[in-house]
């Protein structure tokens, strides 16, 4: 047999995708599963965007495009970054990729060499460690805790950099998957100061930018100062804000040399994003209607409901998310106090799915044992029913 590369042997399937797949299998077998494991809006893509894609096909806009993205789209992205984030970029500093995922991987490959270290908070989004491995670099984890809102503390960042002298990149994700934490301007300033001091590049994954609640405000770390902008790659896309996960479009904005190196990686692996998607995304960004805000308002309503209900459950701890569509309650008490040999979050989730047909993602998948993640990209009725089953499971354990 042919030996796989070291890089590929480090990579495992995405636990969130495999859990969704198992839940779907059970559903297909006729079992009434409630899935809180999905990472995508349950809404359809807004009509005005779909109409634009039809137009692109009818106009035969179906060929390879410029590798970095069609000029109209890169221009529209520059306008968006200026309007929403106060960031001034030129189209040369924008790379359009098939999803924020690809935008992150292109950026990591553009800057990482063997042995370079990439810092990130735990809990982290499940793909980051593998994306780092694909770039031949090594992940370094900075622990955070519920009491401090799952936010990286400046002293912990500085300590991690000092202990890991090959630290080159910090991945930031605000609003965060899985915790829903949103960093304030002051917190980002403190992090920026350390990154500047130690010459760290920040890959700032802002894919959940539009989904923030109450008085939380999304701030891009690149907008902290011109010096910080020079060492930040802003990652964003249309998947979450515009309910366009299957269209595959994300982008990176940053210093021209890194963006063009990422563009080279893309040129030889992908060529370009689907032309129809690109065309429709110009419309998505430039002609936004009120359907986008309506989705946000609905997510906010579900978050409030889910949070309030979780808080009522005995021995469950819960950080109130300010953004994205996830909530990550703590279940430690139940791991320490049950008579069913449930010792880990993985055991907990497996049993919950088998017995009560509720799919959650184990905190272990995010490097955070003792927690579980709910996605509230689901209807209020399903959330209600899922919570009833979750409560019955807890009662059985206690
Ligand atoms: N970044 C985070 C934190 C995510 O949760 C996701 C999707 O789950 C992505 C990036 C990927 O987005 P895209 O669909 O644009 O590749």
TrEMBL record:
GO MF entry, a single one: transaminase activity
Protein name from the UniProt record: Aminotransferase
UniProt KW keywords: Aminotransferase, Pyridoxal phosphate, Transferase
Cofactor: pyridoxal 5'-phosphate
Residue ranges of every copy of the Aminotransferase class I/classII large domain listed in the record: 32-389
PANTHER family for the chain: ASPARTATE AMINOTRANSFERASE
Keyword Lipoprotein part of the UniProt annotation: no
Family affiliation: Belongs to the class-I pyridoxal-phosphate-dependent aminotransferase family.
């Amino acid at each position: 047999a042919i030996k796989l590369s070291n890089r590929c042997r480090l990579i495992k399937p995405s636990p969130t995708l495999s859990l969704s797949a198992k839940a779907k299998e059970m559903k297909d077998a006729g079992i009434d599963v409630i899935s809180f494991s999905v990472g995508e809006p349950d809404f359809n893509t807004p009509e005005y965007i779909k109409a634009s894609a039809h137009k692109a096909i009818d106009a035969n806009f179906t060929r390879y495009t410029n590798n970095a993205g069609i000029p109209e789209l890169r221009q529209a992205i520059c306008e968006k970054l200026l309007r929403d984030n106060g960031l001034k970029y030129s189209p040369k500093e924008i790379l359009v990729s098939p999803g924020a995922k690809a935008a992150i991987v292109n950026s990591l490959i553009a800057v990482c060499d063997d042995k370079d270290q990439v810092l990130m908070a735990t809990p982290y989004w499940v793909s980051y460690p593998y994306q780092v491995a694909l770039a031949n670099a090594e992940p370094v984890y900075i622990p955070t805790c519920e009491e401090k809102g799952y936010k990286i503390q400046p002293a912990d960042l500085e300590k991690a950099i000092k202990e890991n002298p090959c630290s080159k990149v910090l991945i930031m994700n605000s609003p965060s998957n899985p915790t829903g934490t949103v960093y304030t301007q002051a917190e980002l300033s403190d992090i920026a100061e350390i990154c500047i001091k130690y010459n760290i590049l920040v890959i700032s994954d802002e894919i959940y930018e539009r989904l923030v609640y109450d008085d939380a405000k999304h701030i891009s770390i690149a907008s902290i100062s011109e010096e910080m902008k020079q060492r930040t790659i802003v990652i964003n896309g249309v998947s979450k804000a515009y309910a366009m996960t299957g269209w595959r479009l994300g982008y990176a904005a940053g210093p021209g040399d890194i963006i063009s190196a990422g563009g080279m990686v893309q040129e030889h692996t992908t060529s370009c994003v689907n032309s129809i998607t690109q065309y429709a995304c110009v419309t998505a960004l430039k002609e936004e209607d009120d359907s986008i805000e309506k989705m946000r308002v609905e997510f906010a309503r579900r978050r409030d409901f889910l949070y309030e209900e979780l808080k009522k459950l005995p021995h469950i701890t819960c950080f109130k998310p300010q953004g994205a569509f996830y909530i990550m309650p703590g279940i430690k008490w139940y791991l320490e106090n049950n008579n069913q040999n449930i010792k880990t979050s993985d055991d907990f989730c497996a049993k919950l799915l088998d017995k009560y047909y509720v799919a959650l993602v184990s905190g272990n998948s995010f490097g955070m044992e003792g927690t579980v993640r709910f996605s509230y990209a689901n209807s209020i009725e399903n959330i209600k029913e899922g919570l009833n089953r979750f409560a019955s499971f807890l009662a059985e354990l206690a």
